[in-house]
Amino acid sequence: MSNKVLMKLKGITRTYLMGEVTVDALKETSLDIYEGELLVILGPSGSGKSTLLNIMGGMDLPSTGEVFFDGENLSRAAEGQLTAYRRQEVGFVFQFYNLIPDLTAGENVELAAGLVEGPLSVTEMLKEVGLATRIDHFPSQLSGGEQQRVAIARAAVKKPRLLLCDEPTGALDHLTGKLMLSLLQKVNREQGSTVVIVTHNTPISAMAQRIVRMSSGRISEIIENTSPLSPERIDW
Ligand SMILES: Nc1ncnc2c1ncn2[C@@H]1O[C@H](COP(=O)(O)OP(=O)(O)OP(=O)(O)O)[C@@H](O)[C@H]1O
């Protein structure tokens, strides 16, 4: 982890208007994310974790406040700039994989590789996640854990500067979940991608360099962890 701030969230809020009801999903939140760090965001259901992650990924904009990526103000960016940011700088891993069902594992990864200049090799990437022999298989022919490996390969093949993961182990058994976390840690360490993992599973935070706790739409605590564990050594 360097001292360089990759992303700066400055006083952001996110409000949803539901008819007569206003939901404050995020209340006045500020956070700096450092280049190369592995950050875990913890918090109970409804505390604003996904809202925060979606804003980081340029999938949503704050109602007020500003978001900077490498000094560029995303909250003032035009739609085209925001799309370019999502495609070129960010990799996403979701709880339910979100692979394109009509494309094979290889094609899913290829599609992402095609979005950036100088991606990693698709076959190498699938080999890296242990799926070299499944390149021509469709998502429906793969287990949940295998689909999540494809999703990680799809995100990592772009060598994204920011890899955002929303409950990446949420739909998987314990052992498979650990394997996914190990892969994410590897991408962080070997590719240098900044990795942000959202989870409600407290023990997972032992792998992070910093842990952000959220509660009722606010950051309630930021903890530094000087000795992050490898996921194999974590139990939940
Ligand atoms: N599109 C939306 N419209 C209205 N309210 C929303 C919307 N998205 C989120 N919210 C509300 O904002 C709050 C924060 O939601 P968010 O999904 O960020 O929480 P979370 O911590 O990720 O929860 P979970 O762990 O259950 O996914 C919740 O009260 C939620 O109902």
UniProtKB/TrEMBL annotation:
Domain of life: Bacteria
Sequence ranges assigned to domain ABC transporter in this UniProt record: 7-236
GO cellular component annotations of the record: membrane protein complex
EC number(s) recorded for this UniProt protein: 3.6.3.-
Database matches in PANTHER family: ABC TRANSPORTER ATP-BINDING PROTEIN MG467-RELATED, LIPOPROTEIN-RELEASING SYSTEM ATP-BINDING PROTEIN LOLD
Family that this chain belongs to: Belongs to the ABC transporter superfamily.
Protein name, entry field: Lipoprotein-releasing system ATP-binding protein LolD
Organism whose genome encodes this protein: Pelotomaculum schinkii
